[in-house]
């Protein structure tokens, strides 16, 4: 630079450095602006930014005779404007010595002794604050490197941060980052030496900066995208079509990644769902949707038949025996036709029982529908599981510690196929089919978790506060175990409270607990005493008795009126149920993120609520019939075996058999309940010319004998199942 003599090229500090070959001049822009003996006498396109070449040469000649008071070299083109001050310096030297250069009006310069300083009350200085630009700490002191906003009391900045912000925003967008004040803020910053260029913001000058706004968002934002062609792959009218959030439009998902159908339009991203939950609109919209679906005529209010079973008459006691399940024949199979409802049934029934039956039927129908949806979602998550196996050595008598050891081993991965080996006290393996062992393991593990000190409550459980468990990260492991159990074919937990489930799905800040969520008897008693206090004196007396508890909970508040009791009771309730367990809840949430389970919970809360907050539906002949698919050979024309099988299920239900429906399911699959993800492979029934039934747990296949009479069939079933299960138990 012909003025300061430096070769530095730093536009943020010295301005742009340009070389003009035709004039044989290289100069920093700020050195030219701040030089004391030169003015812009030309137009903007004349000379160098309005500075005539002859004037520049004269200024260089003048400065060459002046010594810099800082570096002691010639070329000091800038002087302090304070009266009687004779100090001169180069622009870079002035910056180094913390001089002030005002980029306005006459472009004045002040030396380190006469520079302007900010004035503010003594009580505001001495502490530390956060720079609202870089968010690092800044000392609240009258220093060169620290500047205070003139319009906001607690807004402090680093000088360097403000200068970068000004260069980027320009004169049109540079303003206080706290209150958005522009005029007062810019005036003070110019006085304190911040250069605000007269240009548009950098983001406005960027070519095609807003081009993305002209395009539809097409990207899958689901945590685990299932599309092998990538998150940006979009194929209309297929399962890889990208559906955008109906609220914000800035998030998307493949239909397959969110278990959606092509005709479904109502998809919301987790951010919008959280906003709706906080405002209370989401729950209202759900209730409205359900109410609309229920406004149908009387015939559609009755429960829909199972996909594998035709409709049955509500007035018939043993109409189930008249139906046939789905039968896959090798030749000439015909679909079963649904039976008509007798009109007399609807006429003779009284109104009250009918409405009660309809309401119960609707609830069961809705719950089954949600469980089927959850099963489909879990099946898609199960696609992540590969064929690589991880073996877990489990002691049934010490299920928790051996499971914890297995989950924490180095080679354990949730995406590996789990192979469970049960060991007795002598470490000798007791083997079974892999699926049956896994189901037994997850069943024992979920039962242990339900009754473990990690949870509290009678039937509907909330998280408890166990400091040792927090220290050992057990809440994370519990969440991970539940996620792995759901995807790998374990039973549905069914013990979550609605409050716990809503905290996981919508966030704890959007949940209002109830008194039923308080498991501690003393705390519940305290809340009741406060809530039902009938006078101000009794309320104050209760507060005095519980002073230490309220102080520890941070719920102490001045009580001047009886109506304050509701606010106080609510504060205690929220603290005990939610705020107290925020740390365990966060660890538990992180564990549930395993295999993408938590993300699916947040996207499909109704479906997952049916398996996490409700116990599995008790087995019935209809459910068993729907679960098994009958394969029959062509020589069984009248399908006598199917009739015997269905009649046997009805006898088991009515208690006329020595076994239970759970025994039958365990005999075939090794599990006494239906897993949330369903069975793999799906259970089937085959008829063979054999003496006794066989439960093939490897293929979940029940091989039934062909008999001439129902009594023979029933006796063989009872004898085989009862003795097999007894032998296994022994």
UniProtKB/TrEMBL annotation:
Subcellular location per the Swiss-Prot or TrEMBL entry: Nucleus
Keywords of the record: Metal-binding, Nucleus, Transferase, Ubl conjugation pathway, Zinc, Zinc-finger
Origin superkingdom: Eukaryota
Pfam families for this protein: HECT, PHD_G2E3, zf-HC5HC2H
Domain PHD-type residues, every copy: 1-115
One MF annotation (Gene Ontology) recorded for this entry: ubiquitin-protein transferase activity
Keyword Secreted: no
Gene Ontology CC terms, in alphabetical order: nucleus
Residue span(s) of domain HECT: 664-730
Main location: nucleus
Pathway(s) the chain acts in: Protein modification; protein ubiquitination
PANTHER family listed in its UniProt record: G2_M PHASE-SPECIFIC E3 UBIQUITIN-PROTEIN LIGASE, PHD FINGER PROTEIN
Protein name (Swiss-Prot/TrEMBL): G2/M phase-specific E3 ubiquitin-protein ligase
Species for this entry: Cuculus canorus
Taxonomy of the source species: Eukaryota, Metazoa, Chordata, Craniata, Vertebrata
